[in-house]
Task: inverse folding
């Protein structure tokens, strides 16, 4: 069975707000045969800091895994409700929602519970490497995935998984699928030897 995934960067669609994703848009995508809408840039990323590349920043430099970007909401104080409403509208129109999950790194300014190392891969100077040797990483990353599942997210596009140890990743996916067996994971991989 083939699955059709449509990717869009949230801040570039319509007026750049969650509300831009209306029923008409979803009906159009469904008419194209789209199954999953992959929304890039949902989880709150760094912006307005001196280490950030560009403005409003890179959607892969996550500063808070349990929040959405305030600039995507018509009312920033109700941003999570607005995201949940988007997910509900998509589901009513027969579409599933995919967001990015970045297991390799977080923002340089991240101060949450996921353990990090004081270095970054390549030229990703706005990030810090996640410490997968720390046992706390697994539980915290599982909490991230569970949080988004509770918000109605159906699937995760897993960023740069070849840079993360395979064994804990496989355990992580299995742990989430134990409670949410229908969850789809799509891996970004460039080096097929890993």
Result:
């Amino acid at each position: 069975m083939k699955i059709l995934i449509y990717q869009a960067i949230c801040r570039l669609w319509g007026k750049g707000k969650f509300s831009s994703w209306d029923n008409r848009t979803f009906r159009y995508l469904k008419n194209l045969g789209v199954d999953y809408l992959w929304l890039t840039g949902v989880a709150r990323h760094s912006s307005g800091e001196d280490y950030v590349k560009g403005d409003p920043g890179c959607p892969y430099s996550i500063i808070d895994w349990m929040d959405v970007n305030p600039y995507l909401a018509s009312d920033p104080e109700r941003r999570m409700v607005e995201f949940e409403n988007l997910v509900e509208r998509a589901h009513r129109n027969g579409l599933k929602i995919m967001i990015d999950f970045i297991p390799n790194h977080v923002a340089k300014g991240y101060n949450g519970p996921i353990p990090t190392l004081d270095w970054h891969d390549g030229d990703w100077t706005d990030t810090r490497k996640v410490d997968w040797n720390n046992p706390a990483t697994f539980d915290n990353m599982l909490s991230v995935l569970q949080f988004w599942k509770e918000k109605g997210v159906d699937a995760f596009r897993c960023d740069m998984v070849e840079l993360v140890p395979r064994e804990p990743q496989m355990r992580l996916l299995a742990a989430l699928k134990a409670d949410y067996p229908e969850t789809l994971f799509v891996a970004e991989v460039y080096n097929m030897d890993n």
About this structure: The first helix runs from residue 23 to 31. The chain has a mean pLDDT of 95. Helices lie at 23-31, 79-92, 135-150, 166-179. The chain is about 25% helix and 20% strand.
